[in-house]
Amino acid sequence: xxxxxxxxxxxxxxxxxxxxxxxxxxxxxxxxxxxxxxxxxxxxxxxxxxxxxxxxxxxxxxxxxxxxxxxxxxxxxxxxxxxxxxxxxxxxxxxxxxxxxxxxxxxxxxxxxxxxxxxxxxxxxxxxxxxxxxxxxxxxxxxxxxxxxxxxxxxxxxxxxxxxxxxxxxxxxxxxxxxxxxxxxxxxxxxxxxxxxxxxxxxxxxxxxxxxxxxxxxxxxxxxxxxxxxxxxxxxxxxxxxxxxxxxxxxxxxxxxxxxxxxxxxxxxxxxxxxxxxxxxxxxxxxxxxxxxxxxxxxxxxxxxxxxxxxxxxxxxxxxxxxxxxxxxxxxxxxxxxxxxxxxxxxxxxxxxxxxxxxxxxxxxxxxxxxxxx
Length: 374
Ligand SMILES: Cc1ncc(COP(=O)(O)O)c(C=O)c1O
Fold this sequence. Notes:
With 374 residues, the chain is α/β, with parallel strands linked by helices. The chain folds into 2 domains: 17-246, Type I PLP-dependent aspartate aminotransferase-like (Major domain) (Aspartate Aminotransferase, domain 2, 3-Layer(aba) Sandwich); 250-373, Alpha-Beta Complex (Aspartate Aminotransferase, domain 1), CATH 3.90.1150. Helices cover 40% and strands 12% of the residues. The chain has 11 helices and 12 strands. A 7-stranded mixed sheet has the order 1-9-8-5-4-2-3, sandwiched between helices. Helix 6 links the parallel strand 4 and strand 5. It is globular. The chain starts with 13 loop residues before the first helix and ends with a helix.
């Protein structure tokens, strides 16, 4: 194989996405800008309705980012000092940061082999101060929502889904973002439904919660004269809402391509050397990322890079071991599964612009690495 002379396979390919959409996007952006409704406007309300219909909830509230979605929802639910929220230590930092920002205490529960929060570990982490569970559907693979819903119900806890990576995923026929009191999504450029900058939204069936979020995102105002509480500026930009409405129509195709790539990896990668979370019946995984686990992660990453194949690590340092988390009082050894995975996980490219041959090449170069080592 002439791997060195083959074109590189980037881990993400945002330039290809924009190139494909350039004509549509420029017409759309000019149309929205020339209307003059740069803040608010009909694009926001329409996007909210379309997302709510897709997720199967009563309300969606569009916000400035996924992080704001988490922070404002926790705040709107009245979670604050003295309260504990259970979440995994292997997420993106924003999940835990949101809990800290409302003055509550993040309590970590370790994950299972598939990197998602382990319901048994959640059970053990519950105390009289626990108010909410914040499962994270990492990689676009949903957590075990039946078990988590049972725990939440038995203990009277909110579920706040961190659905930042799981737009379009479902578990037993129900969409991510439709299980909990609320689902918090990100539309950051690296997400499957991505804006041309930051963005996020909250899904919920609770109309009062949605109203409070609409107030909080706009200075706590209910009209131009009346401020009923001190709020924030966390409105999604109208332009981003227009981009997201356009991209929402393309999302099924994008997800299908990523699923096709993932299925091919599953067929080709040698399971003697690589762990991949198994596919479960009656669930839809959307492959925000395709993460494998191997003892020889660093060497494999270097081998792939030498063959022009881009990879990433989500995430190399668990949250409980970050300097920012020192005051939470955790230490090395507290979450052995997370810690072991942090040294074994490797994200392979799975983006929608990969041709079948690209996926075959990544799999071949990967398998070749283990064969050479044997
Ligand atoms: C699991 C998770 N939670 C929260 C966030 C925060 O979203 P944002 O970057 O839009 O603030 C992200 C993404 O960045 C994420 O991956």
